[in-house]
Specification:
5-stranded mixed sheet, 2 helices, 50% strand
Length: 211
């Protein structure tokens, strides 16, 4: 019996170690439909970032959601230099009909819950603070509009394409691109000035890109 007890304890320890090595994913997974991934809100005292499921009109804290990018998002590389040399990339398109036809997320960036007359210049700035893939810094993430007009790029070789300003009370869509499969952690900050005081909120989003 003692041998069984020791073996059981060892198995439990190994299982716990295995669990510790596996990235924890949120219980709620969103993989299709209109979702404002980076959604800024002001409660009168503080800025916040949420994930807004527009289809079901549900808001989530970013830590409570895993965004899924399925194999259906994998398409031929459109050839923009910042997307790397791989023949295929995973794209969440800025066109809603295209996203729907592929069964993938239609991702948005929203300030529509920010009222005019509150923030200086009636604008806030979103910044891509950091990006990792499978725990390591990655250059494989970008957001672009139209024919390759970059909004954000995780490439560490350039200081550009890290921040972009948006007017309040607006709703924007662009293509989200991932050059490799894996688990991405994308950290965004929103910042604005209220009454001469800088206000900000920072959140990390989990995106699982399937092969």
């Amino acid at each position: 019996m003692r041998a069984l007890t020791v073996s059981g304890a060892l198995a439990a320890a190994l299982a716990a170690a295995g669990l510790a090595a596996t990235p924890a994913l949120a219980a709620t997974t969103l993989g299709s439909g209109h979702v404002d991934v980076v959604d800024a809100e002001w409660d009168g005292a503080d800025l916040h970032l949420h994930v807004h499921d527009e289809v079901n009109d549900v808001e989530y804290a970013p830590a409570d959601v895993t965004l899924s990018v399925p194999a259906a998002a994998k398409v031929a590389n459109p050839g923009y230099g910042f997307l790397g040399s791989g023949s295929q990339v995973w794209l969440l398109p800025e066109d809603q009909a295209l996203a729907t036809s592929r069964g993938v997320l239609f991702p948005g960036i929203s300030t529509e819950h920010l009222s005019t007359g509150v923030f200086s210049g009636d604008a806030v700035t979103f910044t891509l603070v950091g990006a990792t893939r499978d725990g390591a810094t990655t250059e494989d993430f970008s957001v672009y509009a139209g024919s390759g007009s970059r909004w954000f790029d995780s490439n560490t070789a350039t200081a550009s394409y890290k921040s972009k300003s948006f007017g309040v009370a607006t709703h924007q869509h662009a293509t989200w691109a991932f050059e490799e499969a894996g688990t991405y952690k994308l950290t965004f900050r929103v910042q604005g000035t209220v009454g001469g005081v800088a206000e900000s909120a920072t959140e990390t989003y989990t995106v699982v890109v399937g092969s």
